[in-house]
Amino acid sequence: MARKKVGILLSGRGSNMMALVQAAQANDSPYAIALVASDKLEAPGIAWAAAQGLSVFTQSPKGMAKSDYEALIDAALRDAGVEIIALAGYMRLLSDAFVARWRGRIINIHPSLLPKYKGLDTHARAIAAGDAVAGCSVHIVTEELDGGAVLGQAEVPILPGDTADSLADRVLAAEHRLYPRILAEFATQ
Ligand code: GRF
Question: Does 44 sit behind a cis peptide bond, omega within 30 degrees of 0 on the bond before it?
Fold first, then answer.
């Protein structure tokens, strides 16, 4: 069976990207990483991906119309034969036009148990609310921020004395287990 070609978009350290790349190295992985792309030329995740021999693409959006920037990303993804886009810490909102062009084929990992805590500062908000449980969600990307159908979630406890940082570490470890598993399921649909 042909492996689904995945393009990963990131803006930073890329630990979720690394988890996806490592899982894709398994003989029975239903997906392969065809491109790792970033809006940040200096993203640590891009340096790591390039060192692995993966195809990488960087394009700063500075000084460009959003539509022109996205057209370049879109072309790079299509040139690489990408079928599924996996967002992994990509810190830009995709335009409605881009989402429409890739409808149902963009997924994202978000560090909360959606629909709770869309947007930023999820861990601090969960602690401030007195929640006993936090977690992460993989969801389909739609025009609504963090609003598309949830494909899978993982829970972790919030422990006494947790800070946003200590909780973030626990959630991140759960993300690294969840994202490859859900992407594999998505790629075999
Ligand atoms: C993760 O917390 C993820 O849930 C969020 O952005 C962060 C990315 O971290 N979307 P990394 O770059 O994958 O390490």
Answer: no
Q: Establish whether residue 111 lines the binding site of ligand 1, counting it when its CB lies within 6 angstroms of any ligand atom.
A: yes
Q: Ligand 1: does its nearest atom lie under 6 Å from the Cβ of 7?
A: no
Residues 7 and 80 sit within 8 Å (Cβ to Cβ):
yes
Question: What mean pLDDT is reported for the chain?
Answer: 98
φ, ψ for residue 181, nearest 5 deg: -65, -45
Dihedral, CA of residue 32, residue 34, residue 36 and residue 39, to nearest 10: -140
Read off the tokens for 141.
Answer: 């990307």
Decide whether any atom of ligand 1 lies within 6 Å of the 12 Cβ: yes
pLDDT at 1 over 80: no
- Helical packing angle, 44-51 and 15-24, nearest 10°: 20
Q: Which atom of ligand 1 is nearest to the CA of 111?
A: 4
For the question of residue 110 being annotated catalytic, the response is yes
User: How many angstroms separate the most distant Cα atoms in the chain?
Assistant: 49
Q: Does domain 4-187 have CATH number 2.60.120.20?
A: no
Residue 5: beta bridge partners?
A: 32
Question: How many other CB atoms sit within 10 Å of the CB of residue 19?
Answer: 22
CB 107 within 8 A of CB 138: yes
Residue tagged 């739609």 (tokens): 142
Return the structure tokens found at 178. Answer: 């969840």
> pTM (2 decimals)?
0.97
